[in-house]
Amino acid sequence: MCGIIGYVGRQPALPILLGGLRRLEYRGYDSAGIALQEPRGQLTTVRAVGKVARLTEKVNAQLPPAAQVAAQTGIAHTRWATHGAPTEANAHPHAAAEGRLCLVHNGIIENYRSIRARLEAKGHVFLSETDTEALARLIGEHYQGDLRKAVGQALAQVEGAYGIAVLAVDQPGVLVVARKGSPLVLGLGDGETLVASDAAALVAHTRRVIYLDDGDIAVLTADSVDIRDRHDVIREREVAELGLTAGAVEKGGYAHFMLKEIYEQPESVRNALRGRLDAEHGTAVLAGMGTSSRDLAEIQRIILVGCGTSLHAGQVGEFAFEDLADLNAEVQQAAEFRYRNPLVGSHDLVLAISQSGETADTLAAVREAKAKGALVLGLVNVVGSTIARETGQGVFIHAGPEISVASTKAFTGQVAVLLLMALRLGRGRRLSLERGRALVAELARLPELIEQVLAQNDAIASVAARMATAEHAFFLGRGPMHPVALEGALKLKEISYVHAEGYHAAEMKHGPIALLTPGTPVVVLANRSPQLDKVWSNAEECKARGARIVAVVTAGQSADTIADDRIVIPDCDPLVATIPAAVALQLLAYHVARLRGCSIDQPRNLAKSVTVE
Ligand code: AGP
Fold this sequence. Notes:
The protein is of the alpha/beta class.
């Protein structure tokens, strides 16, 4: 996913655009670029491989101070490469019409090859490998002085997803933007208008925003916003008030956003639970589930779809729905769900789990489930996101902006809400008042349970120090701790580049144990649970082959004899324990990555939200 920001107003555009890019850099950071437009219309473009800091250096080296303040309009882009390597030639903005136009783009133009072939046959000489350049040149082909019209004509020939911003030399102070499948949000200021792919880039300038709909094309000037929908009908889109604060997108004194977000989890989980626990009736209050209790009682199966960490949260949810609500639940990787022609109907509840609410595979699963008549709910963090809007109902996790590419507080917020949902459905079925009240009490303790894990940060850092040189690691768990093992492995691999595998603890002896060599760290989720003895047996099998056992154990549990290192989590219901256990593994991964000198908030090859298939 890429980051886009545009500005048209009466201030120098350059610092606003560079500041916005820094807010968006977590979305992708292979390369970056900027186009500045002076009041007379001329465009100046600077592009750089690497992070935004490198672009800033080039701008300062290439643009004289007068030029840096003259431009009051501009667009900028930070790229996560999809077509073409991270090179300067492939960086955005891309120019067209002999330099009279330039464009930045987030998404994928799926039919770009045929567009490119048509244009090359007409004599175009492409300068990059990107799909974006094909779109820019197509707009240039249609451009005869009316930029909105040219954009509309070109987009009518395009298949795929786009969020774009376009400038033209002979239309100074005019920014044309359009979206389909990739988010764009407008910021309405006083005598200035902004556009960005993520509201985090706008919050320093305005809290009044408009979320464009798919198919919208908007013409922005310093004092006006003119939106037309896919049928070229003028639309007055709702102006929303951003719930973000500028501080929410700052590190706040932490070394990394990831550490800040790990430490925010007592509060973020408190936010997820706020107003939703009904101790008296031993249930959860979830207005966002939309449908009536009767409709929910008709649900015969729950299908949880998501990707990555959100998929792992869904796997914990699967246990919760079966255990608490006696409901048949299954998890499906969102991309697979879409292409398997799923057997889904009106008695199915499809839960789309997504932090960003923009993941293309999960969005596609939502659309497929709706087409097949299922009840579809979103379990999303970002308000106003595409999945939140297209499901139309669901439950927000209220975790606040998650900037670090590695998802932490979103996972614990998702699991907390899934437990609430399972409790809510369960109490409409066979779950007793007594067990419901006990679970409500446990859930209410979650912020305190997380605090107890955070208090062990130094101890966990010491365990990490004894793992930091390993090139391979295993994470083992049973029951709802199996997805926590998968999540712990994902955290370690995506920020420290250690090759980590998560397995069901019983699975090791069916092949993977062949990989063990003396000293390989094996992290075992050995918390209090009905299968604890079996987990220790699996750990023994690894220990017997020289593995180094790092055990996550429950406070007060009888001391074991085989763990080389222990991380203690507070005693609580095994379903609820998935959250403190996940926090422990987040800290473990963070410290290993820190000790290995990795780029923790922006790991190589990754982006925060994958808005392409
Ligand atoms: C998690 O640490 C990863 N960054 C990634 O797996 C992420 O969870 C996945 O891309 C899904 O994103 P979403 O929750 O925004 O849909």
